[in-house]
Amino acid sequence: MQLELKKQKKKTALLQAAYELFLKKGVPLTSVGDITAKASVAKGTFYLYFRDKEDILGAVSAAVLRQILEEGYMKMGAGRTDSFTENLIRLADAALDYLQQNRGVLEILRRGGRMPKLSREDPLWRSLMRDLKQSEGQELAGKSE
Hints:
Elements: H1 2-25, H2 32-39, H3 43-49, H4 53-78, H5 84-101, H6 104-112, H7 123-144
Helix pairs in contact: 1-2, 1-4, 1-6, 4-5, 4-6, 5-7
């Protein structure tokens, strides 16, 4: 258990370092050596978790997209209505607001845009789909009345 925790901490440190460097220096000017130095791990450790810079870029972009989805879902939930369309618009608006406030993230997404891997068992996915389907059902029920 202790070993798994150490591994997870190293991987998290690498992801955080890559994210910060991609934002600060840009993706093209960030090297694997920069990432490992910032994460305070040996360069060989990087390759235990990622094939190359493109691989970690994909992982960072997936994490960013998941964060955007989580924040959008929370904002959608705070103003949830019975309208599927309105709820979907709230989700999209929240995503656009996030990107407008965090413009540097757009470069990461442009270069490494990989959708987060959300399985149907993922709690975020299940909650989002449940809520959207519920509002869709309520919207359709309202139209038939």
